[in-house]
Amino acid sequence: MRARFLLGIPEPSWLWQPHPGLQDVALFPSRTRLSRRKTTFPKALHDFAIDSGGFTELKKFGGWRISPQEYADEIRRYRDELGPERMLWAAPQDNMCEPWVIYGKNQHLDPRHENYFHGTRELRGLGPDDPEQDLDTAVRIHVELTVENFLEFTRIAPDLNIIPVIQGWLLPHYFYCKKLYEDAGIDLMSYPVVGLGSVCRREDTQEIAEIVDALSATGLRLHGFGVKTEGLGLYGDQLVSADSQAWSYGYRKRNIKLSQCTHPAKNCSYCLEGALDWYRRIKDTPPDWRQMTFDMTPAA
């Protein structure tokens, strides 16, 4: 099996842009970006799935600022206006389990800084004077909240194709999450895709590979959120789909502007041509996925 690759995009207008390079490309906008548009969306010309933007929510604010009902109303609007026939699925309001998300990091920085993390004490029910929880306890709370949120969507929004997400940090956490779904009567095997959370910003790709291997062995059809190209080389054949917007980060960090681009920006971090150049490299790679792992050199 070779994972279907969804192209993470910073600009929702790409959804309805009639660009020849976007033919047969599935796009992955964030709900955070979509929510900025107050006028009616044009009909999408390309298939898409919707990322929750949950990492940003927890990173900046330590929890979700909107209720499940408000979230469902937003997703329904995007589906109906962009076109139900184009929307593949949407992620739920899951809760990431990376230790730096849970405990916070660089809290002396401006919350807008990319290295700032708020921490989730309030989300986990802790007051200002309560002692901090150990990582296992904190992760399990995030996992339980993730499952509770999905169950709420099955109650209030059964018409929306919101997928379950398996969250965790260590392998036992992911299986704990899987069991919670099963105990609640959710047949994960019946879903065409189940999201795999808290993997995109890990440094240990081999550790993720072991988690993917164990979960896919149970028959789950997994979507990898923000999977690195190195990770695709290790376990891409065990995923149904994966997404990434690493192209934008790479162009920005390395200040790369493709020779064929005429836009005024200094690099291609928001550039459709740059995104498609990177996407084609992913698609045209041999089956082992090993290409340009951190090489953003423009293609010849």
Structure explained in plain terms:
- By secondary structure, the protein is an alpha/beta fold.
- The chain has a single domain (4-244), classed as Alpha-Beta Barrel (TIM Barrel).
- 35% of the residues lie in helices and 9% in strands.
- The strands form two sheets. A six-stranded parallel β-sheet has the order 2-1-8-7-6-5. Strands 3-4 form a two-stranded parallel sheet.
- Strand 7 (222-224), helix 8 and strand 8 (241-244) form a beta-alpha-beta unit.
- Helix 5 (135-156) packs parallel to helix 6 (171-183) and helix 7 (205-216) crosses helix 8 (229-235).
- The two termini are 30 Å apart.
Q: How many angstroms does the end-to-end distance come to? A: 30 Å
Q: What is the total tally of β strands?
A: 8
Q: Summarize the main sheet.
A: 6 strands, parallel
CATH class group: Alpha Beta
Shape: globular
Write the layout of secondary structure elements.
Layout: E1 4-8, E2 26-28, H1 31-34, E3 48-50, H2 54-61, H3 68-82, E4 87-90, H4 99-103, H5 135-156, E5 165-166, H6 171-183, E6 194-196, H7 205-216, E7 222-224, H8 229-235, E8 241-244, H9 246-253, H10 272-283
Parallel strand pairs: 1-2, 1-8, 3-4, 5-6, 6-7, 7-8
Question: Features of this protein?
Answer:
8 strands, two-stranded parallel ribbon, 300 residues, disordered C terminus, TIM Barrel, alpha/beta, six-stranded parallel sheet, DpdA, DeoxyPurine in DNA protein A domain-containing protein
Describe, in short, the structure shown:
InterPro entries: DpdA (IPR055645). The protein is an alpha/beta fold and 300 residues long.
